[in-house]
Every structure is written in C-alpha cells, then in structure tokens.
Amino acid sequence: MTDLLSTEYRGPHALSSRGWLDFAARLERREEIALVRSLTSGNSRALDVGGGTGELTRAVAVQLGGCTAVEPHTDRATRLRETGGDIEILPGSAEDLPFDDGTFDVVLANWILPYVTDLERSLREIARVVDLSHPDAKVVFIGGAPDNELVALLNETCVPIAGEPPDDQGYLLAVAAEVLAGNGFSRFERYRTEAALHFPEADLEQRVQAAARTLVNFWYEEHPAAAEMLVAVEPALRRHFARRPHAVGDQGVVLVARP
Ligand SMILES: C[S@@+](CC[C@H](N)C(=O)[O-])C[C@H]1O[C@@H](n2cnc3c(N)ncnc32)[C@H](O)[C@@H]1O
Q1: Cβ-proximal residues to 239 (8 Å cutoff; 6+ apart), any chain
Q2: Above 90 in pLDDT, residue 178?
Q3: Strands of 106-110's sheet, edge to edge?
Q4: How many Cβ atoms are within 10 Å of 233's Cβ, its own excluded?
Q5: Does 234 contact ligand 1 (Cβ within 6 A)?
Q6: Residue 5: predicted pLDDT
Q7: Computed over its alpha carbons, how large is the radius of gyration of the chain?
Q8: Which atom of ligand 1 lies nearest, measured to the CA of 12?
C-alpha cells in the first residue's frame, strides 16, 4: 500500500516531440479547455508554461486577446495572429522564466510537471512571475488524477521494465501546492476533468497495436527497452478495451492556486 504513495518523483519523463504529437492527435480534451477558459475569464496577462502544441494557449489567447507561451522545444521567438488573439512563443523553460517578477496575472502550467528537470525551482519561478496584487491572480496546474487510466496502464506494464518507481502525479501537485504556499499563495481549489485518447479503429488487434504505440512512444519512445514495452502493454490493452472499447482515459486534476 505504501508503495502507492510517493515521497519523491521518479525523475523527469523524456517526452519526444513525435510521441507527443501522435498522442495529442488522439486526445479529446474539451472539458479541460472549457474549464481553463472559465478560470481565466477575469484575467488579462496570461503565460502558458510549456505550451506544447498550443491548444490551451490558443483558447486563452482568443478569450483574452493574447497569451504568451514559453516552450523549450522551440529555438526562436515566434508571434502568431491566427485566431483573433496574439500568441507570443518564447524559447525557455519553467526553471528559468525570461520575465520580470509579477509580469502576469495568470500562469498556466498544464501537464508539464512530469517533464521539468528541477521541480521546486520551476514552481518558485512560476510563483515569481505572478502579480500577486491583481484581484484575480492565479496559477492553474493540470496533472494526472489518481484514477488516470493512461498512467495506470504505463505503471502496470512499462514502468517495471524501465525499473522505475510507479509514476505518481498526485505527488507533483502536492509539491506544487506546498511550494506556492511558501511563495505568497494561500487559497487552493481542485477540480476534476475527463479527457481521453480515442482509438476509433474497428479491428481490435489494429486498435491494440495503435494504442500500444501511442502509449509507449509517449514516455518511452527512445528507451532501449521500448520494443519489450510494446509487447508488454498489449495484453493490458486487450483487457482495457473489453471494458472501454475505444478510449483510454486521461483523467486530470486541476489545481488552482491564488494569493
Ligand atoms: C505533455 S506536454 C503539455 C503541453 C501543454 N501544456 C498542453 O497541456 O497541451 C508537456 C510540455 O512540457 C514541455 N516541457 C518539457 N520540459 C519543460 C520545462 N523544463 N519547462 C517548461 N516546459 C517543459 C514540453 O516541451 C511539452 O510541450
């Protein structure tokens, strides 16, 4: 039982851009996007840390007229004006945000904590760039819920092959709350969201193979034991699809921190 409760994180996951793009193409996250939009409706200066493919950045930019994103997987600053809102993407990482203190009134850090190399430093940086005097100042984190089906499948099949401790995303959000509490934040709320990867393939074996590739490539594409992991995840996916034939849940917890 105590194995389920982490006292430290297993270390940053390697996220290959190909693995993430395949994953993102299968992901349906309307509920998450709607919640982020309603949480940011009273804000004006928004930062999306680790914006990735920009789905949430775009939703916020359309609503607020603009959004800045910081992304390590880009090598030059880019400005986009394609959606009615200005998007500025800057190269950088959560550990070293290229902004003065208090530049933004809302910071989004969605599904990025498993990937940062220095968790506590990233969290202090996120807190630093929030303008605590703004009446609606906040940080919004999204991470995996305790019943996240994708993380459970990876924990059951790939994590033992990698010889790693099980992934526990609740630990990351608990540390986020603790670090922000020490950096000017005192009110915390949590919400739950349903998102899922969709596998519309009619043939079960094609579906199992597509899902195995998507799941393994997401965290372990470049792992030396990736081929062994693909074989290991298939029986677990057959059992999973017997219950939920065309989707793997990516259930989230949204943590909102306010001063
Ligand atoms: C799973 S994706 C999530 C993307 C986006 N936030 C979303 O919800 O769609 C994780 C993102 O974290 C970014 N990332 C990795 N290391 C990071 C770091 N040290 N600081 C900030 N972002 C990082 C990756 O490049 C990737 O875009």
Answers
A1: none
A2: yes
A3: 78-80, 86-91, 66-71, 46-49, 106-110, 138-144, 252-258, 187-193
A4: 25
A5: no
A6: 59
A7: 18
A8: 16
Domain locations in the chain as residue ranges? 11-258
**Does ligand 1 lie within 6 Å of residue 55's CB atom?**
yes
CA of 204 to the centre of ligand 1 (A): 32
pLDDT value, residue 1: 39
Of 54, 58, 145, 141, nearest to 106 by C-alpha is 141
Whether 252 lines ligand 1, by a CB cut-off of 6 Å, is no
Atom of ligand 1 at shortest range from CA of 108: 6
94 lines ligand 1 (CB under 6 A): yes
Rounded average pLDDT over 113-121: 95
Nearest Cα neighbor of 215 from 202, 231, 200 is 231
Assigned token pair, 67? 């959004």
| CATH code of the domain occupying 11-258 | 3.40.50.150
